[in-house]
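Q: I have 146 residues here and want to know how they pack in 3D. Can you give me a structure?
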Amino acid sequence: MNKVCALLILMLPLYTVAEEEFFVPLDVVKSWGYKIASRNGYKYIKRIKKVPGEGPAYYPRFYLGKACYSDKGEARKVDEARRKEIENDSARFKTYQDAFVNKNCLYTISTDSNYFYLEFQPGIVKKLKEFAEDENSHNKNVNATN
């Protein structure tokens, strides 16, 4: 239980984001086929179209996180600690998440559904990586003109 609490405390700063501070702009999220939604005070992205098929409507949703550190090494250390917490969780608290480090920032993508994780998360990871690369290019160009 303590490990679960520690993991949640570690991840909490990544998800407590006000809509106007959501790090992926709404127009970018929409271009992915998603919208920004809120649940229990947390912002996430939700697919605009339901999952095809009969039965109840399912809309894949993902929590996106971005936390920046003093350097890339520190971001990698935090990512490694996060991964070890998940691996060593004796309560088998299952999370469906991916993460990557870009420059000095740790990006996380998570969902509460194995189906969404397997079917839709790889595409979201790819789009978020592309966004992070574009963001770095944009920041580099802005800094070069100043």
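Q: Anything worth noting?
A: The longest helix spans residues 121-145. The mean pLDDT is 80.
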